[in-house]
C-alpha cells in the first residue's frame, strides 16, 4: 500500500474511532436495537443528512449507527444508500474545492501529523 493510501486509511480509522468513543461515552443507546431496526435508523439518518447537510442531529444519528455497526463487527447496509452516498461525496468534494489552497494545506498537514504521531507510537 502506498504511503498516501496508508495516511488516508489511518485518517478514516482515526475519525471512526473518535466517533465510536463519543457514541460509547454518550451511553451506546442503539445497543439493544435489533439489526433490522439499526439498518432502518442508519438509512433514515443518511437520508436526513442528504436532505439537510447542516443538520447536526441527523449527522450525529448517522455516526452513532455507524459506530454501533462497527462495535457489533457488522457492515452497515451501504447498498441501501448508494445514491445518498454519491450525493454526500459530491458535496464533500465541492466543499473541499471551495477551500483556499492554504486551508487545504493546513488540513493536509494536520492529517499527516496525526499519521506520523501514530507511526512513532508503534515503534
Can you describe this structure in just a few lines?
This protein has 123 residues and is mostly helical.
How would you characterize the overall build of this protein?
This protein is globular. It contains five helices and no strands. The chain has one domain (3-122). The chain starts with a helix and ends with a helix. It has helices at residues 3-25, 35-51, 56-72, 82-98, 101-122. By secondary structure, it is mainly alpha-helical. Helices cover 78% and strands 0% of the residues.
- State the secondary-structure class: mainly alpha
Largest sheet: none
Percent helix, as a range, is over 70%
Q: How many strands in all?
A: 0
Series of secondary-structure elements, N-terminal to C-terminal? HHHHH
The fraction of residues assigned to DSSP E strands is under 5%
If you compute it from the alpha carbons, what radius of gyration comes out, rounded to the nearest whole angstrom? 16 Å
**C-alpha end-to-end distance:** 19 Å
State the domain count.
1
Mean pLDDT, rounded to whole units? 93
Low-confidence segments, ≥5 residues, pLDDT <50? Answer: none
Tertiary shape: globular
Total count of helical runs of at least 4 residues:
5
Q: Characteristics of this structure?
A:
123 residues, single chain, mainly alpha, globular
Secondary structure elements and pairings:
Blueprint: H1 3-25, H2 35-51, H3 56-72, H4 82-98, H5 101-122
Amino acid at each position: 500500500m502506498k504511503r498516501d493510501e496508508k495516511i488516508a486509511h489511518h485518517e478514516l480509522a482515526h475519525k471512526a474511532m473518535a466517533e465510536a468513543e463519543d457514541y460509547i461515552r454518550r451511553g451506546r443507546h442503539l445497543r439493544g436495537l435489533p439489526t433490522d431496526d439499526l439498518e432502518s435508523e442508519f438509512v433514515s439518518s443518511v437520508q436526513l443528512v442528504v436532505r439537510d447537510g447542516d443538520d447536526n442531529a441527523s449527522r450525529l444519528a448517522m455516526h452513532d449507527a455507524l459506530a454501533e455497526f462497527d462495535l457489533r463487527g457488522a457492515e452497515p447496509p451501504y447498498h441501501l444508500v448508494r445514491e445518498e452516498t454519491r450525493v454526500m461525496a459530491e458535496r464533500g468534494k465541492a466543499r473541499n474545492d471551495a477551500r483556499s489552497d492554504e486551508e487545504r494545506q493546513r488540513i493536509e498537514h494536520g492529517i499527516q501529523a496525526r499519521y506520523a504521531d501514530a507511526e512513532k507510537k508503534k515503534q
